[in-house]
Amino acid sequence: MRYHLVLRTVAKILIPLIMLFAFYVQFHGDYGPGGGFQAGVIFSASLILYGLIFGLAALKQVIRPWVVRVMLASGVLIYGGVGVASLLLGGNFLDYGVLAHDPVHGQHLGILLIELGVGITVAAAMITIYFFFAGRKTTKQ
Amino acid sequence: MFTAALFAVAVAMILCLLRMLLGPTVYDRILALNSFGTKTVLTIAIAGFLMGRPDFLDIALVYALINFIGTIAILKFFEYGTLGDESLEESE
């Protein structure tokens, strides 16, 4: 893909816009269609596009495999941590209302944190799947 | 009016499907798949306006992005035989 000038230019223009759209889907999910899962998939799609155009080695320079593994675990940690925090504050598991003094603010904070955890984990999982697909030996004769 | 537009797009999608099944070369099929995805974007947008939910346009935008990336992935796989580096292929 070293000589495909049009593809490289289009990818350089599109990748920041895709990331911006992923953040829009992540943080606007309360009011419109969207949420953590979709935002994670869109965010990883931008990095997969980078890997397709510029190669797997370049993508591994941008985001190291150990960073992906840490992201994979920390999203689940955020999700479970919110649940345990609401348990410790006297509610049920994942009962967001007790997270702040006002139950409505607690609901907002809880859903934001949960969706953040889901988004981080899904993005890392999709990038890991791409790493393993792209790292295979070639099938062309 | 939206119903007529939806019907027209559905006819075009059927024609794309026929080209995808009949296409003599693999590039005909990929081109048909790409234009089928574009018509899916149009279908999502028209259906959103038909049901009175214009926020379906967000979903149409996402579908357009994923369609673009998927087409690039398929083309790269058929050209180089790998989704990663072509240098892996050269070293063999």
From TrEMBL, chain A:
GO terms for cellular component: plasma membrane. It holds the Pfam family MnhB. Residues 6-128 form the Na+/H+ antiporter MnhB subunit-related protein domain. The chain crosses the membrane at residues 5-25, 37-59, 66-89, 109-133. It is found in: Cell membrane. Coiled coil: none annotated. It is a multi-pass membrane protein. Belongs to the CPA3 antiporters (TC 2.A.63) subunit B family. It comes from Solemya velum gill symbiont. Its main location: membrane. The keyword Metal-binding does not apply. This is Cation:proton antiporter. Keywords: Cell membrane, Membrane, Transmembrane, Transmembrane helix.
From TrEMBL, chain B:
Its main location: membrane. The chain crosses the membrane at residues 30-52, 59-78. It is found in: Cell membrane. GO terms for molecular function: sodium:proton antiporter activity. It comes from the Bacteria. It holds the Pfam family MrpF_PhaF. Keywords: Antiport, Cell membrane, Ion transport, Membrane, Transmembrane, Transmembrane helix, Transport. One of its GO terms (cellular component) is plasma membrane. PANTHER family: NA(+)/H(+) ANTIPORTER SUBUNIT F1, NA(+)_H(+) ANTIPORTER SUBUNIT F. This is Na+:H+ antiporter MrpEFGBBCDD, subunit F. The lineage of its organism: Bacteria, Pseudomonadati, Pseudomonadota, Gammaproteobacteria, sulfur-oxidizing symbionts. The gene is mrpF.
